[in-house]
């Protein structure tokens, strides 16, 4: 019977199609607009009600509803392309297709489209759990395909899950070959543009409270895997932006320009590392000071020694980088750079400006003045807190001379202001400081709460020196609410009294270990599977002797591998089937003996018809042939499994016929 003529009314076909669609769409329901998710659920429930009540929905009504859904997507997103609009529209049309499905072709189309829609879940979540879920969803689609091609529907198939699982395992070798050898794009296939992207992390300006606002977020900013030795945690300053322009309240990037390759500064390499940067919807990427060589294509080094990408980071970005110790002996600060890094707004924070000028006259030497200001922070009653007093005007005056309470951005802002007031070039640097070591994956986790601001001061003959005024605060003046943050900055505050171990702390330690183990698995998944890009593929292939200019030979080898694997697998299936069917071989041998005795053997003829013809045309052979053929019929067409002894008995009887 032609399977394409099978109706969808067979037992369980419509319910299994509804279940498949629900499984495929369920991850998207948490990311699509609520009205789209609710509409797809309502359409699935409507299709089930139509199936149970055996009613008919007019095609014109379905068409009107589909047009309304298309209009709703356009009105909501102002487009029908892009990630959210595209996925939302195809999800709605996917469920509308089931509502109007009538025959085998419609069911097959729904199931094959399911494979495509399944991949769209990776647009929103690339975790291990999502990968496992999509594997289960793929199993459900295969079960639907098997049921769709069964005459009796779901009721006629035993071990439906087992059959689909075996099918998936049979396809696994080809899947692995295609994954490792198929030409990769420069970015993930699902890196589609989004109209509703948002990100968390370092912004392009710093105002009082901007860094403190990230303190409570444990979200991972990036992971770093060092090749060989790693620096001490308190020396891990992950540079992001250099802010040189100040308007009295906010620090901004100011004038900057990319450097030509022949203008890169010289330096001696120190630490080599690999970064997994989580998407933050901004163009800057982070690296361990000092930054020279850009880590990837379309990443540029700017004259303030920061890295910038040509496009926003909207997908996880993997890159390898080299840290350097820059030699500034041949670098001079140009006149416009000196002016940029000494400018201050007029009529702003006059009291602090006067304090800086007066105190600088006491030492009259930039390096000594840096030490003097740090000593002033250490000896005076300055506090490190998340909840400082808020000043609407003259923020630096209020912090430096009055409240003396602030977070890292307050100290960095005031320190640079004081340096500039004394005529010393200085700027604010924002990024992350420290990190949490994961012993189960041998890498460091940098979280949003590790966001930090520090400063750089230009000293003649030395160049830009990193100065972190927050580290000068006396440990006794750090708020208890920030005690946990000192884990990544442990050399700043070493005088805290050790805490007493309690049961709750043991529980936190236990769950922390589980969290780190899970993150190590997620990191491996991100880098080895989800991050398997063109660069990783070339690196892997170069180890087996395939270079970039031999790419077409890789394509030929891939095609040949698939063809040979398919042919080998097909031959193996045929040989297995042939070797296992001992009953059929014995029966064919019996037929050859009959043919020698003058019986016309017709391959399309069943055993019952053959026996009837022998009785009419060769009655002398009928008694002996009847015994063999009837035993063959009882063995071949009975419902229960034939015992090994009965099989051997038939084979012996068939061989004894002569």
Protein described:
The chain is an alpha+beta fold. It folds into three domains: 13-181, no CATH class; 205-486, no CATH class; 553-656, no CATH class. Helices cover 47% and strands 13% of the residues. It contains 19 helices and 18 strands. The chain has helices at residues 13-25, 34-53, 59-77, 83-99, 104-119, 128-148, 160-181, 335-340, 350-363, 366-379, 395-403, 408-421, 503-530, 534-542, 551-580, 582-596, 607-617, 622-636, 644-656; strands at 205-206, 220-226, 237-243, 245-246, 251-252, 267-277, 284-285, 287-288, 299-301, 307-309, 317-326, 383-384, 405-406, 426-433, 436-438, 443-447, 451-459, 463-467. It has a five-stranded antiparallel β-sheet. The chain has a five-stranded antiparallel β-sheet with strand order 8-3-14-17-18, with helices on one face. Strand 4 (245-246) and strand 5 (251-252) form a beta hairpin. Helix 6 packs across helix 7 (160-181), helix 9 packs across helix 12 (408-421) and helix 17 (607-617) runs antiparallel to helix 18. The longest helix has 30 residues, at 551-580. The radius of gyration is 36 Å and the shape is elongated. Residues 189-197 and 483-501 have low confidence and may be disordered.
Keywords:
single chain; 658 residues; alpha+beta; five-stranded antiparallel sheet; 47% helix
